[in-house]
Amino acid sequence: MELKKKWLKYLGLQVNESKTEMCIFHGNTDGSLLIDNVLISSKNDINVLGITFDSKLQWSSQVSRVIKGANNSLQTITLIRKYFTASEILQLLTSNFYSRF
User: Fold this and answer.
1) pLDDT tens digits, 49-89
2) DSSP label at 18?
3) Which of 13, 61, 72, 88 could form a disulfide with 8 if both were Cys (CB 3.0 to 4.6 A apart)?
């Protein structure tokens, strides 16, 4: 068992190597880990629980992704609004558009 695997087991963590991603938040963002003969290379950005983090800890990619999703929701609501009452439209906007912000 590799040292990294022992360290993870000691901390009570279990890792699915095929789904694991890594991002280094430092000046040098190149790096890699080897866990059970699976090479995990660092990426410039990763998505964790719906939030996009980039290696420079800037919010531009997260903001762009949220705006794109909100615009898609708004476009869909605009197309179907004639089938709903004003209060139902407000509920759709609140749950599908405003909630993204």
Assistant:
1) 888 888 888 888 889 988 998 889 889 889 999 999 999 98
2) T
3) 13
